[in-house]
Design brief:
This protein is an alpha/beta fold. The protein folds into two domains: 128 residues, Winged helix-like DNA-binding domain superfamily/Winged helix DNA-binding domain (Arc Repressor Mutant, subunit A), CATH 1.10.10.10; 218 residues, Dna Topoisomerase Vi A Subunit, Chain: A, domain 2. It contains 14 helices and 17 strands. It has a six-stranded mixed beta sheet. Strands 9-8-11 form a three-stranded antiparallel beta sheet, with no helix packed on it. Helix 1 runs antiparallel to helix 2, helix 2 crosses helix 5 and helix 12 packs antiparallel against helix 13. The protein binds 2-acetamido-2-deoxy-beta-D-glucopyranose (5 copies). The site of one 2-acetamido-2-deoxy-beta-D-glucopyranose has 5 residues, from loops. The site of one 2-acetamido-2-deoxy-beta-D-glucopyranose (NAG) has 2 residues, from loops.
Amino acid sequence: MACHDFDIDDNSILSRIGDVVLSIIQQISDNKPPVLSHFNRSTWQNVSYDENVGLCVNDAMKMTSVRFDSKQSIKKFTLMMKLLSMVYGLIQTDRYCTKRDLYYQDTVLFGNQTALDDALENVSCMLHVPRWRLHVLATSKGCIAGDLSFHDVDGNYIDCSKTKSGIQVPSRIEGMQHIQTDASFVLVVEKDAVFQRLLDEGFCKTMRPCIIITGKGFPDMNTRMLLNRLWKEFSPRFFILVDADPYGIEIMSVYKYGSRSLSFEAPMLTVPDMEWMGVLPSDIQRLRLRNDSLIELKSSDRSKILDILARPYVLKSQLLYKELNVLLELGKKAEIESLDSISTSFLANVYLPTKLRYSFH
Ligand SMILES: *[C@@H]1O[C@H](CO)[C@@H](O)[C@H](O)[C@H]1NC(C)=O
Ligand SMILES: *[C@@H]1O[C@H](CO)[C@@H](O)[C@H](O)[C@H]1NC(C)=O
Ligand SMILES: *[C@@H]1O[C@H](CO)[C@@H](O)[C@H](O)[C@H]1NC(C)=O
Ligand SMILES: *[C@@H]1O[C@H](CO)[C@@H](O)[C@H](O)[C@H]1NC(C)=O
Ligand SMILES: *[C@@H]1O[C@H](CO)[C@@H](O)[C@H](O)[C@H]1NC(C)=O
């Protein structure tokens, strides 16, 4: 199984970058156009599923070549070389910066943030080193609240139980220290609006000790790393609440199984024990959700469902297989907010408490 080296030290990273540069010099002196190569992150080939880790790649993974003498890749080649030199500088001087800072150091070259992010993932893939080890941080968009306290990398004490609207997930998860929690469960919520509502309604106070967290849609790496760390160091149950639609199911899968493009980092990013609490497509029928609170599946939704059904982890999860088929049969999807059609307090006062009671039974 090919994985990134998570425990690699700074000097070894510097010497890997040195090796890449040496090989380029070697190719030039042999009169060959230089080529960089890294794993192809956009194919499911050779991505497999390990129940204890999530998505993984095996050693036969397809490689992508970035050639200096090809019109399509010369720009990519340039971006990757530029990033290698920036990263080298950061590591050598033991400084950290965000992806955004990197972008502003040469906006003309990078063009847009997405292009930089993509090239950076490829660099990290080429070096077999996770991005955060390259001293490049991403600003977190996730928020957390509940029974959790810790010291951040600067030594500040942070108590997540004393917040009205949630605390931003720190940008250096591995630098968090003295983490303390008595939470018996962690509830991951897809949407910020639902997270805020649960906080306003005092969800954390009325339930047994818990942590609630939202990645605000598709989760960023810091949010996923924090969950992974809580999973490894403590033993709460993990539940997730997402929309009963293909996008919600995709988000649930990313937390639980990992994503294809970051499958190298699954051991640091996934929570394989994550339990899909709701909203399940079968809840739509079971709770007889009102027709006018549902949305018709579009053809793009159907192709997304078929895409998920073909993934390596679906065979291991009867629930996922069954619920995806329920969604296809119904031809309708529901949002978490569709539960409001029953009553506005249904989610916090009935739905979640019932599911939790059942799970802890
Ligand atoms: C990154 O790699 C993917 C394939 O793995 C490729 O499609 C993409 O163009 C590459 N991007 C850059 C900027 O190198
Ligand atoms: C890996 O991919 C190659 C084709 O690129 C295929 O022949 C091989 O069977 C795959 N191996 C696994 C274990 O999926
Ligand atoms: C990555 O693999 C996919 C599927 O095999 C292919 O379509 C794509 O062109 C490859 N990307 C690169 C940059 O090689
Ligand atoms: C970013 O730039 C690349 C080319 O450098 C382009 O293909 C892509 O569409 C741009 N993305 C956005 C969101 O503007
Ligand atoms: C449900 O609503 C859809 C439009 O959203 C409509 O076409 C359908 O006839 C309705 N079904 C029932 C049973 O009311």
